[in-house]
Amino acid sequence: MISLAVPTLFSLNSQISIAAATHARASSPQCACVPARQLAEADQQQQQQQATTTARFRWDAVGSDPSENQKEAIRGLSPKLPNRCRALITRVVCLSPLQDEEDKEEILGALLAFWVKSMKPKRADWLLVMRELAAMESPLLVEVLEHALLEDSFEANVRDYTKLIHIYGKQKRLQKAEDAFHAMKARGLPCDQVMLTVLMDMYSKAGDLTRAKEIFEEIGLLGLPMDKRVYGSMVMAYIRADMLDKAEDLISEMGDQQIIAGREVYKALLRAYSYKGDSEGAQRVFDAIQFAGIVPDTKLCALLVNAYCLADQINEATIVTRNMRNAGMTPCDKCIALILGAYEKVNKLDGALAFLTELEENGVVVGQEPSQLLAGWFRRLGVVQEVEQVLKDLAVDRKDNIEVDKKSNFYRSRKSNKVVGRRSQTVGRKSKSKRSFASSLQHK
């Protein structure tokens, strides 16, 4: 009995001592409180880690309920698109435009990372995806390109960074463009002339002439080719900075090096002189355009006409329209309206009617814009009734002429060639007696 009771007593004593020790540790504030808090925080962190490790990105959860516009965009995808590219684009398109930007970027990043891990895309796949996004003008194209530049499978080169910087420049996100440029240099990719030209054009459009000039000089110092695009970007920078004389000097320098500026560069310089009313500068640029072998169109001629009209040189403006007719071009409504507006400005109605008469005699039909301007001018002069009477007389005259023409055609089909010749001469005499609207109004 004793041998059986000893272990029992020992176990009770050990339990009591263990309980006492545990109670003592629990009652001690220095050795139990802080470790307990640390253990609780450690447990919480461990649970969070387990939750993040067990959580998986659900590919099918993205784009499960597309809208009608999104369905229409998906139906418009190229039928030759590979399935792995189509799957990604479908889910990119279905990202809700109403989502928060941070949430959208996070979802897009997880979507692209999952696609890269599961599909193992090549550079051609990336390019197909971005081409489709660009075709549908997706606002997420930039984010996809940014992510692609970080992936080894994309095999990024200088042109990819050039495209991204060009997009940033159009969006006027200069800091983003500079960050992309520094990231490209950090990867050891060489900076070429095309990249620097894009940067120069970006700073030019942003109004930073100093930075544009620095890059222009850097292109020369690096020994890179100074071609038509480089000079054209710098000329546009001077034009935007309203330094037109500098722009002309640079164009002359281009001519010395047998480099011809582009049509848009000349047009921008001519437009700048035209809007300032500098007729001498506009005529000088217009002559340079023809000397460069560029055939002026009606838009370039309208800019020259506008310069003369703003300078109150109406005779020179009308000479431009005559030269247009001699060159086989019909003066556009814009040119006619500009000249009529200049005549109204100096209150010369007779000159305006003589100008219109000259146009009508040469077969030029006056369009809606100059007609409305002329009607407003007559209304302000209070001669609307006289104009209406002239129009009625012209309508009757034209109706009579139409009847005469019908009869002449009828007799021409039945008479001999000799009689027809006489009839045509008579009709010719009648047609010469027709009076145009402008000449009739001027006579009135």
UniProtKB/TrEMBL annotation:
<keyword id="KW-0677">Repeat</keyword>
<keyword id="KW-0809">Transit peptide</keyword>
<feature type="region of interest" description="Disordered">
    <location>
        <begin position="414"/>
        <end position="444"/>
    </location>
</feature>
<feature type="domain" description="PROP1-like PPR">
    <location>
        <begin position="164"/>
        <end position="279"/>
    </location>
</feature>
<dbReference type="InterPro" id="IPR011990">
    <property type="entry name" value="TPR-like_helical_dom_sf"/>
</dbReference>
<dbReference type="Pfam" id="PF17177">
    <property type="entry name" value="PPR_long"/>
</dbReference>
<feature type="repeat" description="PPR">
    <location>
        <begin position="227"/>
        <end position="261"/>
    </location>
</feature>
<feature type="repeat" description="PPR">
    <location>
        <begin position="297"/>
        <end position="331"/>
    </location>
</feature>
<feature type="repeat" description="PPR">
    <location>
        <begin position="157"/>
        <end position="191"/>
    </location>
</feature>
<dbReference type="InterPro" id="IPR033443">
    <property type="entry name" value="PROP1-like_PPR_dom"/>
</dbReference>
<protein>
    <recommendedName>
        <fullName>PROP1-like PPR domain-containing protein</fullName>
    </recommendedName>
</protein>
<dbReference type="InterPro" id="IPR002885">
    <property type="entry name" value="PPR_rpt"/>
</dbReference>
<feature type="repeat" description="PPR">
    <location>
        <begin position="192"/>
        <end position="226"/>
    </location>
</feature>
<feature type="repeat" description="PPR">
    <location>
        <begin position="262"/>
        <end position="296"/>
    </location>
</feature>
